[in-house]
Amino acid sequence: MGRNRVTLADVAKRAGLSKTAASMVLNGREGTRLSAEAHQRVFAAAEELGYRPNVAARSLRTRKTATIAFVSDIVATTRFAGGLIRGALDAARERDHVLLITETQGDAAFEQYAIEAILDRQVDGVIYAAMATRRLAVPPAILSGPVVLLNATSAEKLPCVLPDDERAGVTVAETLLGHGHRDRIALIGRNRQKERDPEISLAAEARLRGIRATLAAAGVKLLSETFCPEWLPEHGYTATRALLGRPERPTAIICMNDRLAFGAYQALGEAGLTIPNDISVISFDDDPTASWLRPRLSTAALPHEQMGRRAVELLLDGEAESPSFVPMPLRRRRSVGPPAGSPWVAPHD
């Protein structure tokens, strides 16, 4: 038989105060005229007795449960985006909140069940997350309370947190310009479906917009733009081989993601070319493979932990502008250098 639960009355008795006074101290309510010594007695008594507040009773009184729901499609079991959950967990813990996590795997029936189960627990709000940055349809059931979209937007114009892909495109282009690349920059990874359908991707069009605007401002045109059916290594490999067969070889290649860059590395290696001495390569995402490639790949990192953290802050505070864009820092590694034979002295990274 377990020991009896310690009550607020027990704490008050140990501290030599009324139950009301002890409650006001433990709940941090303003207006108490108790001395600092009395406050210390209450906290000491609570610690000595192992007192834990009755969360259910408190939630009935405050209509708050200090619980946040995190609903995702396939984020939870994806190593690549696990930072979304880590950032949200850390931010929730710092605010004395608990995160309830469920993953739907794209199953609409299970999603409905999971959402109903979460709402039955009277959560204070819902973070609805997507693996790929895209526009999604939000289940009507969660619209009855506070909602923040993570890595996604919606037709309902809900508060959302997104990576700043356009600014990342600017940074990638500026990096090549800063190393002296001008008239022979190639891009691989154009994809009309990703660029035109926001329900598939918001990143593609934004990255392309940042790249083009920055190069245009410098009076530079892309040497070529290669379309790929998917952003996968095999398509990066095929696109790079095609580039190398052109009469004018590029001095630098921008890949729309790191998996394309992985394929580009293989094609360049087979052709006997070195990175960055012959051709520079730069990319987006900071996939775990980026730091294992040789040379290590320079890439604009998806800021997953910061995004998860921002989503919790936006849900609890509700004051930030929406959409809330989180910067994608450039991981400056060894895959970018000046064009071969150029007198240009590259800036120190």
UniProtKB/TrEMBL annotation:
Record keywords: DNA-binding, Repressor, Transcription, Transcription regulation
GO MF annotations in UniProt: DNA-binding transcription factor activity; transcription cis-regulatory region binding
| Protein name, per record | LacI family DNA-binding transcriptional regulator
PROSITE patterns cross-referenced by the UniProt entry: HTH_LACI_2
Q: Which residues form the HTH lacI-type domain?
A: 6-62
Show the segment(s) annotated as Disordered.
329-349
